[in-house]
Amino acid sequence: MQLPDMARQRDECRGVFASGGFHVVGGYPTEAQGQFSQSAETFDVAAWRWGAVEEGRLEEAACPRTCVVGGDGRVYMCRQAGQAVVVEEGGGAWRRVADLPREVRVALQMVAWEGGFMVLGSGTQCGAQVAYILDIESGEGEGMKWRKVELQRAYSGHVQAGCCFHI
């Protein structure tokens, strides 16, 4: 069964299931390449319809590809300022939870992983990819612990997209 159309076109958007809904964040119309929207739309599965467009859900020019639902059911993403952030309960503002390791500041991808999330990226443009896992159950701020994942050199190239699902 096909979903009804959203109110806006959303190339390069990100979709996540959280709080009983399917949330689609960011993206842009085809004719506005790379001009990411700050809005989001939520699909109510029970009612089989999209809710109203929510403006201001992302920071200006934020690419939504790092939005992910953590093991605690909350939505996280990486800021361009080198921070991992979580959206406040009820869809409020984004709040800093940890600084990203310096080795993962460019070309970021993020996936849910082992009760937390994994961040992949590099320290410089065209640099080798590295990965870190953040244990979100270890507390917030200074209490959160990053664990580096050793990648084989054959798998250290640019990551265009990432996903993870549990069987």
TrEMBL record:
Signal peptide: none annotated. It comes from the Eukaryota. One of its GO terms (biological process) is negative regulation of cytokinin-activated signaling pathway. This is Kelch motif.
